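Quiz preparation item.
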């Protein structure tokens, strides 16, 4: 949940989801393949969930400890990489701006 709530991850998922939906909408052949794949994944997920549940119940204390450790690691990562709190569009815009600025600086240096 913590990873999914990171602004960068969340906005990247939105971008991919929008592209996927748009592609399905625009291309009927791809839509039929995607629909079949989605049904297959749903069936496998439902079948696996019932088999895995007893194992997950047994491992729950270990999973909780690992989750706590991972959460602390993500907090530290978020502090060191503020980029994770920015949406994809802003990162792309900032990168274009930075590259433009550097190219302009290089042109100025060469011309002088």
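Solution:
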């Amino acid at each position: 949940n913590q990873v999914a709530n990171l602004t960068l991850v969340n906005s990247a998922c939105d971008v991919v989801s929008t592209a996927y939906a748009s592609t399905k909408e625009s291309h009927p052949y791809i839509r039929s393949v995607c629909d079949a794949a989605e049904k297959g994944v749903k069936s496998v997920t439902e079948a696996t969930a019932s088999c895995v549940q007893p194992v997950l119940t047994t491992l729950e204390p270990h999973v909780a400890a690992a989750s706590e450790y991972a959460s602390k690691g993500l907090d530290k990562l978020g502090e060191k990489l503020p980029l994770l709190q920015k949406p994809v569009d802003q990162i792309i815009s900032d990168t274009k701006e930075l590259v433009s600025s550097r190219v302009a600086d290089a042109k100025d240096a060469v011309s002088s």
